[in-house]
Amino acid sequence: MTRPLPPADSGAAQRFPVVVVGAGPAGLTVGNILRAASVDCLVLETETRAFIEQRPRAGVMEEWAVRGLEKRGLARSLLDRAELHTACEFRFDGERYRFPYGELTGSHHFVYPQPLLVTDLVREYADVRGGAIRFGVRDVRIHDLDTDRPWVSYTCPETGEHQVVHCDFVAGCDGARGASRASLPPERVRIARHDYGIGWLALLAEAPPSADCVLFGCHARGFAGQMPRSPEVTRYYLQCPPGDDVENWPHERVWSELGERLGAAGVPPLTEGRLIEKRVLDMHDYVVEPMVHGRLFLAGDAAHLVAPIAAKGMNLALHDAFLLGDALVARLTTGDDSGLDGYAEACLRRVWDYQEFSQWLSEVYHGTAAGDPFRAGTTLARLRRLFTSPAAAAAFAEQYLGTAERY
């Protein structure tokens, strides 16, 4: 059983072998792996439990990621409730082109919104496996990373008391603006960043999907995408200028543009519904190297971001978490350091491969709207090749599904 936390206002220093900063998919997966091995850990999260269980995020999961969760006893609800997708559809030049990647590869995607996965993971960690977790903490700081005695401090939300936690390792899973990144010495960090120079208007609609699969509309007016989330809710994207104001996109304009960009011969009109979320995302990627700083191990968005262009972000976070959780268990239960020593290299092979695919796919999505006839022509050539060349189709399917064995 996990050791109970001392009262928040006791002033007593706490100790856990691992402190996990951030309760997203990466942090909660690491915590669950540790608890399954009877390793104590403390998860610190700045938001409330209700907030992280409702925060809208990604929803497309690659099969290997789901199998990794299943292997660790973390996929029961997912396997019962997720939708399986075996095809996607491109719409360009006024026509529709279905890409049956399930038939080509025997693999598929799972569609399971991230809030549901986070709800499953936090329930398993806190309620089933007895893991220690503190929500709503403030002023998280990570100290003495270059020693074998790091420690983490935070402010208790209930009492305002300053708390100290000693540990052996810190898993930094709290995103680009969290305490983990803030604790890195700037002179020892390289952040490789790529800006696409475009924005996506991210929308959630209270409407059933207008097709049974993901839709990619490659149009001269800009990209549009449909990503089913549930029978009642659909995620849509519309290419827009970076930094655009959501007030420029009233209900009527959104549905008009979606209908235009996703239109094709013989398809019915989109099923419209109330827009329950509108956000503008400036498309960019970054990779932080190194991912390890003394006793701090970065995972998920703290270490890398891949734009939602290829729906890879949550999958990369889980890949990091599987590697880091298993490596910490090996180190803390048997003294085996090999997993921790090879952690960053093993993560970055997949990270950079997914970044390259995101760049390639961005040109496919956005090239026809670039205002450059040459780019538009080469983009259409790439799209047609997917449906005329078995080799091109196989290569796309491998990257889209993340099934390459080279990882």
UniProtKB/TrEMBL annotation:
<dbReference type="InterPro" id="IPR050641">
    <property type="entry name" value="RIFMO-like"/>
</dbReference>
<dbReference type="Pfam" id="PF01494">
    <property type="entry name" value="FAD_binding_3"/>
</dbReference>
<protein>
    <submittedName>
        <fullName>4-hydroxybenzoate 3-monooxygenase</fullName>
    </submittedName>
</protein>
<feature type="domain" description="FAD-binding">
    <location>
        <begin position="16"/>
        <end position="357"/>
    </location>
</feature>
<keyword id="KW-0285">Flavoprotein</keyword>
<dbReference type="InterPro" id="IPR002938">
    <property type="entry name" value="FAD-bd"/>
</dbReference>
<dbReference type="InterPro" id="IPR036188">
    <property type="entry name" value="FAD/NAD-bd_sf"/>
</dbReference>
<keyword id="KW-0274">FAD</keyword>
